[in-house]
Design goal:
two-stranded antiparallel sheet; homodimer; alpha/beta; 16 helices; TIM Barrel; 7-stranded parallel beta sheet; about 350 residues
């Protein structure tokens, strides 16, 4: 089918679509009562391993909000978990590794990812793709090498990335070896999802904003660039999104990694991003999720400001600037989706 | 005395000094064993109320490291606490208000700050100033209106500032009334410290980086600009520093508030800041405190990179890019201080 029939893919390519496409990072999850009804207790990694459950959770926000893409219900530590690194996701805490990555010997716990390691993920993608209409793509995703490395090295969510930065500056050769493995892992993980029916992908470098531009350019960019470059060879024409929180100071560098779409949080205006990166760059974002929590009036006013900032450019995928907060009233997200569709509808 | 005799004041004015001055945000505190020996248990607000104890704690890092300024041992919620708003600092948590600021009636809990409310603070400043040699100034500080507001409105430290942003966008008139009171409070608090013997000040807008440039410009900048403007009238020639974490995207706006010195974290290079703000702007920063935690080798290499980034400009006050982490080995800070003095010594 042609891109104009698929608003998400059209916008990613900068082509006009029936309306500006909408999806929400972390749209599948705790904000939805139907999610809480089926999810059960325990680690997300356990839920992800049940393809029918994971497919149902992936589809829920599409059914409820009428969003234009279904992002796989998964987690960025899945590949490291799948090769036996020894990492889990503790409910209420986040990724936890009992034995963090600290020395060269830990590289042995990161063998290459094989398709057979993640059969449950590709099964989920196939189930979701079979259910969705042709104009709603499944989005693959993976954690970018830096952000995954930060979890493996810190052993738990961090605010200052002390061990990660100590590794970068104290043992740069080991850091590079780790990043090479994680880049290959991200390629394999995303490629498997695309092979199973996903039609675009997002690389989450959520915590890269903790770095200076100089450190990002030297110790991170080469590996993220490898991910986008290799995926472009393996899956030509499939759009990739590059996203991080509070990465305004890294905008040009993250764009230089090679994504088709740059994901923005609310700290970077869409107009400013086009000024810095080129007038035709495709952008995703960037409504502050805190405004969605403040109720429909504040949220809808915020959505209108995002659209005004974009000024009618076709190369825009509407999203939040960060993931949906679990406390969010899902009715507000439905209203935001409807408003964006209404205000941008071209039919 | 002339500024060349006081390295801190010379650098703030862009004039050559005997060496690049050094101090560390949160230098007085838990990283020092001599602090832990005298501090006792309980809230920092209790310790601050004992001028001899607070003066001793303020002086400790100067004695140990030979830094070029002594920043008052205090807390940004002191003024709100002193007028009876109902806020304390819970050890291990941070500022906590049992009844957060949520409606117009809460303005009554923020009467104007009078000198008599904070006699213990001015007594501490006077004790410290009497002890220090003439070439080491005492630094006053206060929280900027936005950052103090975020504590009053959230009621505790926050990651997403949901209530604060809801107030800004849902009740902008009440927000402005709150910010006016907090701006006047910051002026009164800093002015009292300067009157007691402090010779420069820092306005901490630590969490302003959570805002978009548009929101900062409309809802925050006018009030921070009032603080710097009024203090310049009351205390002409006294340099003010403006600092926030992860504020690269607000750099021009925070500079426009009127400080003599702009404080940078490690996300903004000193050279880039001079390119954006003007070649002669005075800057403070910006060694990543995570590198100091990684040991002397990594810390000293990082300090050399900061000095290289500054390229010998006289308008540079060396500091970390954020506060000293309590786990820091204080010996490393002493080594960093000595290295900066040695490499920049002009005598």
């Amino acid at each position: 089918m042609g891109a104009p029939d698929v608003p998400f893919l059209a916008a990613a390519r900068g082509e006009p679509a029936a309306h500006t496409p909408v999806w929400f990072m972390r749209q599948a999850g705790r904000s939805l009562p139907e999610y809480r009804a089926v999810r059960g207790e325990g680690s997300i990694l356990h839920a992800i391993k049940q393809p029918e459950l994971a497919a149902e959770i992936t589809l829920q926000p599409w059914r409820r909000h009428g969003v234009d893409a279904a992002v796989l219900y998964s987690d960025i530590v899945v590949p490291a978990h799948a090769v036996g690194f020894g990492i889990d996701v503790a409910p209420g805490t986040g990724p936890v590794a009992e034995q963090p990555f600290r020395s060269a010997g830990d590289l042995d716990r990161l063998r290459p990812l094989e398709p057979g390691d993640i059969g449950y993920v590709t099964d989920t993608v196939a189930l979701v793709a079979a259910e969705l209409p042709a104009h709603v793509p499944v989005l693959a995703f993976a954690g970018a090498p830096f952000t995954v490395a930060s979890y493996l090295v810190e052993g738990r969510p961090s605010r200052d990335y002390v061990h990660t930065k100590a590794l970068i500056h104290g043992e740069p050769t080991l850091w590079r070896a780790l990043m090479e493995r994680l880049a290959d892992s991200a390629v394999a993980f995303i490629s498997a999802q695309l092979g199973a029916g996903a039609r675009a992908f997002q690389l989450f470098d959520s915590w890269a904003g903790a770095l200076s531009p100089a450190d990002y350019a030297e110790f991170v960019l080469p590996y993220s660039r490898h991910v986008f470059g290799r995926l472009a060879e393996l899956h030509p024409g499939v759009p990739g999104i590059h996203y991080g929180v509070a990465c305004d100071h890294l905008l040009e560098l993250m764009h230089a990694a090679g994504p088709q779409v740059i994901g923005l949080d609310w700290r970077t205006s869409i107009a400013a991003a086009r000024q810095r990166l080129g007038a035709d760059v495709a952008v995703q974002g960037n409504l502050d999720p805190a405004l969605v929590l403040a109720g429909a009036d504040v949220a809808l006013a915020g959505a209108r400001r995002v659209l005004a900032d974009n000024a009618g450019h076709p190369a825009h995928i509407f999203n939040l600037g960060h993931g949906v907060n679990p406390q969010t009233d899902p009715g507000v997200l439905t209203e935001v989706t409807a408003l964006v569709h209404e205000l941008t509808g071209r039919s």
